[in-house]
């Protein structure tokens, strides 16, 4: 594979749709072909050379040396390779991603990792609403892979999530894990109201010292030391509030009882 660096020329006047610009798609192309690829700019299609200087690399990375806060669908349907953004990104970052690594050295807007099926997405800053959730009009959220947010996340984190792992080192907004079907969400900070709303299965781990069980969840008397040690060790590799989980005590609750849910809400002390 051949790598590329796309360095910003100027900020766009309208939002830009970067779907199709993935490491595997750009690897076999020549420089002129990459420069001629068209992206959506408002209602028009324009070549990416309007916004970026294109330079080949000696490795197989695709690097955006730019702040992409006005660029949406970065890493959309990414199917391998490694993509690095040296700044923030817009909406739908890592959406429908299937494999590979997407690293954002900044923040992301709404719907990051929506319907993600595989791979790894790392966001150094904050993320917006409906992260790891559904695309508008769809019934299924994140379906696999790993999402790590080192800042905070907005509302409806993991809405309708079906599989995969989400790790948030900071706080999360309202309706965390709403309508969760399966998967694991771990949060190192505080959360908003209505957590676990209509949650059916899956696991939520709250490592923040001030967190409590959500309404609609009841204490579970079943002891799960082996499961907890495995889960705690898996989360410990992310560091931060999760580094010492295995040595801490916890309480376990199940719900949401409003829908006969069997999800678990693990509150670490």
Walk me through what this model shows.
- The structure is a single chain.
- The protein is mainly beta and 269 residues long.
- The chain has a single domain, classed as Pectate Lyase C-like, CATH 2.160.20.60.
- The chain is 8% helix and 30% strand.
- The protein is built from 3 helices and 17 strands.
- The protein is elongated, with a radius of gyration of 20 Å.
- The mean pLDDT is 94.
Report on the biggest sheet. 13 strands, mixed
Residues in β-strands, percent: 25-35%
Shape: elongated
Give me the number of helical elements.
3
What's the gyration radius in Å? 20 Å
Whole-number tally of structural domains: 1
CATH class: Mainly Beta
The chain-level mean pLDDT equals 94
Sheet with most strands: strand arrangement:
5-1-6-8-9-10-11-12-13-14-17-16-15
Number of strands: 17
Q: Write down the CATH topology.
A: Pectate Lyase C-like
The secondary-structure class comes to mainly beta
What distance separates the N and C termini?
47 Å
CATH architecture: 3 Solenoid
Q: Extract low-pLDDT stretches.
A: none
**CATH superfamily descriptor:** Glutamate synthase, alpha subunit, C-terminal domain
Order of helices and strands: EEHHEEEEEEEEEEEEEHEE
Residues in helix, %: under 10%
């Amino acid at each position: 594979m051949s790598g590329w660096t796309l360095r910003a020329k100027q900020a766009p006047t309208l939002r830009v749709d970067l779907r199709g610009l993935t490491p595997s798609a750009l690897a076999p192309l020549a420089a002129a072909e990459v420069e001629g690829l068209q992206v959506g700019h408002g209602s028009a299609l324009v070549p990416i050379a309007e916004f970026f200087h294109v330079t080949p690399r000696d490795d197989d990375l695709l690097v955006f040396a730019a702040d992409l806060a006005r660029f949406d669908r970065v890493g959309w349907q990414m199917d391998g390779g490694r993509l690095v953004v040296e700044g923030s990104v817009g909406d739908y970052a890592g959406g429908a991603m299937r494999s590979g690594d997407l690293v954002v050295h900044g923040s992301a807007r709404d719907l990051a990792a929506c319907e993600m099926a595989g791979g790894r997405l790392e966001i150094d800053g904050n993320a917006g609403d409906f992260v790891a959730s559904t695309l508008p009009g769809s019934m299924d959220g994140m379906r696999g892979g790993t999402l790590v947010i080192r800042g905070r996340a907005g509302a409806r984190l993991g809405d309708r999530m079906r599989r995969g792992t989400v790790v948030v080192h900071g706080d999360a907004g309202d309706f965390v894990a709403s309508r969760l079907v399966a998967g694991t969400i771990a949060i190192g900070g505080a959360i908003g109201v209505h957590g676990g709303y209509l949650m059916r299965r899956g696991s939520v781990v709250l490592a923040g010292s001030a967190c409590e069980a959500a309404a609609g969840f009841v204490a579970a008397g079943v002891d799960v030391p082996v499961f907890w040690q495995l889960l705690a060790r898996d989360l410990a590799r992310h560091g931060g509030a999760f580094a010492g989980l295995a040595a801490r005590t916890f309480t376990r609750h199940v719900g949401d009882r409003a829908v006969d849910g069997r999800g678990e809400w693990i509150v670490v002390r």
